[in-house]
Amino acid sequence: MDMTFGQPSAEAEPSIAELLAARPWLTVAPDVGLMLDRIPLARVAREHGTPLWVYSDTVLTARYRALETALTGAALSARIHFALKANTTLALLRRLAALGSGADVVSLGEYEAARRAGFAPQAIVFSGVGKTEAELSAALARGVGQINVESAEELERIAAIAARLGLRAPVALRVNPDVDAGTHAKITTGKADNKFGIPSDRIEPLYAQAVATPSLRLVGLAVHIGSQILTLEPYRRAYGRLADLVRRLLARGLPVERIDLGGGLGIPYGTEPAPLPTAFASVLSQAFGAFRLPVILEPGRWLVGPAGLLLARVVLQKHGAARRFVVLDAGMNDLLRPAIYDAWHGIVPVNPSRLHAPVSPADVVGPVCETGDTFARGRALPEFAADDLVAILDAGAYGAVMSSVYNLRPRAAAVLVEGGTARLVRRRQTIDELFSDDMA
């Protein structure tokens, strides 16, 4: 059963042992319990408190290199641009920049994060359907490498801004291929009724118009069909339609410098199958290898999702009329995905005495005053006591970036496990800081 977002049946739900077996970076020692890259998570919690984001440099690096190797093996001239919307922790961004990644941003704030992390302006792609005039002006003035254009109206606005600045704007037209990615409706972006991209049948005349505009430099086409895609067929359909467009543009003598293929490759949140990077690279090669053009990929979740977890402490265990509730100090203000997508995340005890204890159904909930503040329903988990620790797995993507201070709960701290140590990379917000922007 697909465990991407919805709650699986009790029969389909992976056990704690199965979750850990699929994640070799998580190990168990009899004396200290659950460890990430051989660092005891209980010790990390003692030193930095909870809720706490914990990231693995080893996992992030290994996944980047695996994707890079797959692309090279498929004989593609490809560059990876990390999608900052998945995670903007500067320590992780600096690591990705050092590995050779470019950046994909969707706001001026993300652009600034990329620059502070060491990404060169030319290595930054600016995407997004609602880029403001101020954002476009700033990005162009600072030398952004590529702007993905979402509409004819936006193209006109960019041309006018670039002309006013005396610049030529490097732009790619984002195609809406009308392909259903087969993922959650809220993160599907390539269907005709989605807000993203330009309909395929409008691309050629708009492309020719842009090529003839002095303040624009057309670099090619872009596409992105959604997030958490777990089969390759949607990519085959979307990339086939994009390849046809590239072919027609080249046949008309219009310049195409590169092709931006977006991201969206999914990860297993349980133990379900997910595409390997080699298989994905083969799809790219089949669609675009003959063009011998550089391609851009913009993964986010695939790189950083498994590299992070949310460490939380049990406040208490509550027995209701018909259900057992495990109440955590982390809530939907920290990890929003279960509340808005019904997303499934593995939940694993940290304490050694709990890891192999008998299990029974439990609802894992947070302290926020919303019934939707629920991480799991009917999950097979052991009995817990106050101050026990749990790890919510695969939370490195769309976790910290979507967090809020709802119920005036300060944002959590973050640590990075690297080189045998766990160092603080984002301090915990204080209560006083919650009010620092208020004008009394």
**Would you report the number of β strands?**
21
CATH fold category name of the largest domain: TIM Barrel
What composes the largest sheet?
A: 9 strands, mixed
Bulk shape: globular
> How many H/I helical runs?
13
Number of domains: 2
Q: Name the structural class.
A: alpha/beta
The CATH superfamily of the largest domain turns out to be: Alanine racemase
Second rung of CATH, namely the architecture of the largest domain: Alpha-Beta Barrel
Which runs of at least 5 residues are low in confidence (pLDDT < 50)?
none
Mean pLDDT value: 94
Residues in helices, as a percent range? 25-40%
Strand proportion: 15-25%
What is the CATH level 1 assignment of the largest domain? Alpha Beta
Estimated radius of gyration: 23 Å
Straight-line distance between termini: 53 Å
